[in-house]
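Before relying on records like the one below, remember that each one covers exactly one chain. Contacts with other chains, cofactors or solvent are not represented anywhere in the record.
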Amino acid sequence: MIRAVLFDLGGVILTSPFDAFARYEAERGLPAGFIRQVNATNPLDNAWAHLERGDVTFDEFCDRFETEARQAGGELDARQVMALLAGDVRPQMLEAVHRCHERLKTGLLTNNFVSDAHSPRLEDVLALFDVVVESSRVGIRKPDPRFYELACDSLGVQPVEAVFLDDLGQNLKPARAMGMTTIKVDDPDVALDELEKVVVFPLRTQSSK
């Protein structure tokens, strides 16, 4: 029986920054997918990983990230790239979180950095979660299995009693290995169709489907 629903933030509740990355790359003459490529290189010890674990300051991150980009053959402005992370709230996802919160335990599992945590526009969203696990505050990040264990322990559930939604397959893999039901969010409406089958109650009004 599912007792908890766990949501990622960017790319799930908020729109994905990947489209904005693509526009930035095109404007700068960078190869398509360049930013994600830099971020995926040495993923446990690169600038982005250290930032999301709270190991470096934002200024230190920017210097490191720009160096990594140059090593990969491109030039970028790290501060401009990070500004692209701010997405818009997806109304249908927000409604689903509301409905899950009324019946089940809810958790937000997000890799973030200190300066983007708890912005005023997200306060109403964060209030819908029983537990918020932020990489910058706990010092570990997805896909480290300890991140998911911490979330389950905080909610008082076993992994097999939780369903987790994320837009990155690499973040879903360890959760699935622990026994969680996982849903990859590409199209949010398709993901909500899957989640409704798991929780067995409606997550949207008929008019929003």
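The radius of gyration is 17 Å.
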